[in-house]
From TrEMBL, chain A:
GO terms for cellular component: periplasmic space. Its main location: periplasm. Residues 1-25 form the signal peptide. InterPro entries: Bact_solute-bd_prot1 (IPR050490), SBP (IPR006059). Part of the ABC transporter complex UgpBAEC involved in sn-glycerol-3-phosphate (G3P) import. Binds G3P. The complex is composed of two ATP-binding proteins (UgpC), two transmembrane proteins (UgpA and UgpE) and a solute-binding protein (UgpB). This is sn-glycerol-3-phosphate-binding periplasmic protein UgpB.
TrEMBL record, chain B:
This is sn-glycerol-3-phosphate transport system permease protein UgpA. It holds the Pfam family BPD_transp_1. It is found in: Cell inner membrane; Cell membrane. Keywords: Cell inner membrane, Cell membrane, Membrane, Transmembrane, Transmembrane helix, Transport. GO terms for biological process: transmembrane transport. GO terms for cellular component: plasma membrane. The complex is composed of two ATP-binding proteins (UgpC), two transmembrane proteins (UgpA and UgpE) and a solute-binding protein (UgpB). The lineage of its organism: Bacteria, Pseudomonadati, Pseudomonadota, Alphaproteobacteria, Hyphomicrobiales. It comes from the Bacteria.
Length: 437, 293
């Protein structure tokens, strides 16, 4: 993996040296990302398109491994003064990057300072403020944004004589028992903290953490040891025990594979997984919104985005910053957004791009691809713009560990959530101290 | 008698300099840096750094997952060390006894050593995979519902088995050469005196193998503590969940994945102390009792 990158990187550098010679004024910038495989090829294509669209700037994308590896590499590079111009950082790492004052230049400021028009209202509502600061200034440019949705095997649902459930009540009383009777595992999901925790909170418009879900500076407290989420996990455990739900471990693909193979009838995954499911599934499938508990709300709200954003790292020359601003202008253009959306399944981040996709008739052929963006555009609430929590990778690890204990029967729901509450708040406190608060 | 001496007293130091600088740059400097940062709370970018004394250590021992992973590390190391040594010894003694086609057997057993460790780990884990692994399937035919990554015990079982499996060829080579170093005359004399081959093994062969065994013991403890990182990483696929992890893996999780530099430095300092104790133990206590000649 890494050797190939070095070779590709070295070749790219070698090529850039030879091609850069005639155009002396060309400014070169680097972009570290975590998009492997098919996604990485699409990233390279975007970079090539940008380089071909003008002659003043040249961007070189470099694949750095997983989200965590990319971020660690970026931090190490920053400390060594070798940081890339643009780095892709995932949702759970945003607080670390934004909290470190002086590591990044806010995308909004960068664009405005370099004469690139920017209006935050151009961005679709679910995406708009996720990577913003308390004042609503956009810091990270949302890049690959997705949201959890429910995929379902149309054959399986037809065979069981059910429709995709709108609510969890419907799921547990009607959908799941009938699917089970038809010989299917009714449900699986791929990310317990993201789908069953964070987005459980946004779908029901519940406060996730104090201090405005952590956006205000200070030491927030997570509101996890609460009845709604505990009730949800008690239900999930019951489904698990009654074979209405299956859990194949913490890994993403372990849970997606049984759906792709047709054993599991419904799978909660990312709207960005659309391409992968499409190429793997040998049955007609469709997608719909994440179910909600009717007992908790009559008006379910929009969900959070997942995925990652592009951050402009500080410490570069004005020319290079200008190049990054121009790249952001290119990236947010409706055509590029639509291309990215179509190739990968990630949602387009601007309304203009969404309109372009609609106008092009894309959703007529593939209605599944619209579910994510429609869910992100549902009415919002006080607690649906996102969250900003430090050491969040460890907090998710704590959740995964304790949820695993619930499912294994090692702990009761109450015990597990008490541990999650204590340990996650300890981590938040530690993070605040490490940031010098 | 001719006394050869360097003309300048500084000359020997000059010759040692390349080696010394490597040791200082790659070992002492990072170690000192780890000790320093274990007393600080620092954001990953290094913008703010606060001296917190022993807070990182206190925080570490008060966390339930740290204590759990320390406990697992002990069980893991004992099992991996014991079984990889025992299996290798058994194979070496058996291979040593073979008369016909001895070199073929030995070559075949040693061959495994040539497989790169990550590949070996990956193959091992594939055997335990829930969907395609033949071993997992084999267990299921016995009614053991083997679930890698879901059940703590099953995950630990796979980690330990693959770690043992990977280490056996190394131990085998050392044991076999140790066995071949035992003089034929001693073995023949023992064969005349004692008919039981088991007794001959425990009273003659085993004590004479002690230096090799002792060396391997230390090597294997170090292996199980530090070098099994790759196996654990392959099993967990980057998501620890409710699975057991060793202390070294935890340093990686907290430091690299989580960006908690102070906390993971404190953990690595504890590991350094552990290695120090192991070294002292090696030279002071055991080495004296091992019979070398």
């Amino acid at each position: 993996m890494s050797i190939r990158n070095y070779i590709v990187g070295a070749m790219a550098t070698a090529m850039s040296v030879t091609t850069a010679l005639p155009a002396l004024a060309q400014t070169e910038i680097t972009w570290w990302h975590a998009m492997g495989g098919q996604l990485g090829e699409t990233v390279n294509e975007i970079a090539e398109k940008f380089n071909a669209s003008q002659s003043d700037y040249k961007i070189t994308p470099v694949f750095k491994g997983t989200y965590e590896e990319t971020m660690t590499a970026g931090i190490a590079a920053f400390r060594g003064g070798e940081q890339p111009n643009v780095i892709q950082v995932f949702d759970a790492g945003a607080a670390t990057l934004i909290g470190a004052k002086g590591a990044v230049i806010p995308a909004q400021t960068l664009m405005k300072d370099n004469g690139v028009p920017f209006d935050i209202n151009d961005y679709i509502s679910g995406v708009r403020y996720f990577y913003a600061d308390t004042d609503g200034t956009m810091i990270g440019m949302p890049f690959n944004s997705s949201t959890p949705i429910m995929y379902y095997n149309e054959d399986a649902l037809k065979k069981a004589g059910v429709t995709p459930p709108k609510t969890w009540e419907e799921f547990q009383s009607v959908t799941a028992p009938k699917l089970k009777a038809a010989g299917y595992v009714p449900l699986s999901q791929s990310h317990l903290p993201w789908i069953f925790t964070e987005n459980f909170y946004s779908r029901h418009n519940l406060e996730f953490a104090t201090m405005d879900n952590g956006y205000e500076s200070g030491t927030p407290v997570m509101l996890l040891n609460q009845d709604p989420i505990k009730g949800h996990f008690a239900a999930v455990k019951e489904w698990l025990d009654n074979d209405l739900f299956a859990w194949y471990g913490t890994g993403w693909t372990d849970n997606q594979k049984p759906f792709n193979e047709g054993q599991v009838a419904m799978w909660l995954g990312s709207s960005g997984s659309f391409g992968g499911v499409k190429s793997a599934a040998k049955f007609p499938f469709n997608a719909t919104y994440l179910p909600y508990w009717e007992s908790l709300t009559k008006d379910p709200t929009q969900t959070f985005i997942g995925g990652a954003a592009l951050f402009a790292m500080a410490g570069h020359s004005e020319d290079e910053n200008k190049a990054v601003a121009e790249f952001f202008r290119f990236l947010t253009s409706p055509e590029v957004q639509y291309f990215w959306h179509k190739e990968t399944g990630y949602v387009p981040i601007t309304t203009a791009a969404y309109d372009l996709a609609k106008k092009d008739g894309y959703y007529k052929e593939t209605p599944q691809a619209e579910v994510g963006i429609k869910q992100l555009s549902l009415p919002g609430g006080d607690w649906t713009k996102g969250y900003r929590l430090g050491f969040y990778v460890q907090i998710r690890d704590v959740m995964n560990r304790e949820y695993g204990k619930i499912f294994a029967g090692e702990k009761t729901v109450d015990e597990a959530f008490e541990t999650i509450e204590i340990e996650s708040n300890k981590l938040l406190e530690r993070f605040a101290r490490s940031m010098g608060n | 008698m001719n006394k050869s001496q360097f003309r300048s007293p500084l000359y020997p130091y000059l010759l040692l300099l390349p080696q010394l600088s490597i040791v200082v740059i790659f070992f002492y400097w990072p170690a000192a840096e780890a000790i320093r940062s274990s007393f600080y709370l620092e954001d990953p970018f290094g913008f703010s750094s606060t001296f917190v004394g022993f807070d990182n250590f206190e925080d570490m021992v008060s966390r339930s997952d740290y204590v759990a992973s320390a406990r697992f590390t002990i069980i893991f190391s004992v099992l991996v060390t014991f079984f990889s040594l025992a299996a290798a010894l058994l194979l070496a003694v058996t291979a040593d006894r073979v008369i016909k086609g001895a070199s073929t057997y030995k070559t075949l057993l040693m061959w495994v050593y040539a497989i790169a460790p990550p590949v070996a780990g990956l193959i091992g884990i594939m055997l335990f995979d829930n969907l395609v692994g033949p071993i997992a399937e084999f267990f299921r035919s016995f009614g053991w519902d083997f679930k890698l990554g879901v059940n703590r015990f099953d995950t630990a079982f796979a980690m330990i088995t693959v770690s043992i499996w990977k280490q056996i060829p190394v131990n085998f080579i050392f044991f076999l050469s140790g066995l071949q170093g035992i003089p034929k005359s001693v073995q023949e004399a023992a064969a005349i005196d004692c008919a039981s081959s088991t007794r001959r093994f425990w009273t003659i062969t085993f004590p004479l193998l002690a230096p090799t065994g002792f060396f391997l013991l230390i090597i294997n403890i170090t292996y199980s503590l530090f070098d099994t990182f790759g196996v654990i990483d392959v099993v967990l696929k980057g998501e620890p969940g409710n699975n057991p992890v060793t202390l070294v893996y935890k340093v990686f999780l907290d430091g690299f994945r989580g960006g908690d530099l102070g906390g993971s430095s404190a953990q690595s300092v504890i590991l350094m102390v552990l290695v120090l104790i192991l070294t002292v133990f090696q030279f002071r206590l055991i080495e004296r009792r091992v019979h070398y000649n």
